[in-house]
Structures are given as structure tokens and as C-alpha cells.
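Exercise 3.2. Students should predict the tertiary structure of the chain below and write it as C-alpha cells, then compare their answer with the key that follows.

Predict this chain's 3D structure.
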Amino acid sequence: MYLIVFLLLINLPLQGQDLTSPIKNQVDIGIGIGMDYGGIGIRGTYLPINKFGLFASAGYNLNGLGFNAGAQWLFPKR
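Answer key:
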């Protein structure tokens, strides 16, 4: 039991994406949990131009099939 709690509390330093270089025509697919994934599901994102993305996701939300779709604008870091 303590091993499980220890593994959940480990903090790993992560480095975010560097958005200073132009990103376009990039496709990302991932699995996860939350509203971004339609519950427990899969999400796909397409970046047709720099800093603008279109996404769609589908998953099971413990009550049936859930889905989410939309657009996002990526803000540059300061």
C-alpha cells in the first residue's frame, strides 16, 4: 500500500513545448481521462497553422459515450 502512495506522490520535472519555432501541419493523438478526452477516451489534435489547433475526442464518461470538439489558440510563453 505504501509503495502505491509513494509512486503517486513522485514529482518529476517536465519541460513544456517550445512554441517559439513555427509549428504547423502537426497531428497529435493521445489517450487520457477528463473533459478534454470525452471521459475516458482518445483525443486527436491537428495544427493547420502556427499557434492554432483543431481537436476532437471521444470516450466513455460512465454514463454512455461522450465527445468533445473545438478549436484552440496556443499562447506563446513570455
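Discussion points: The mean pLDDT is 78. The two ends are 42 Å apart (CA to CA).
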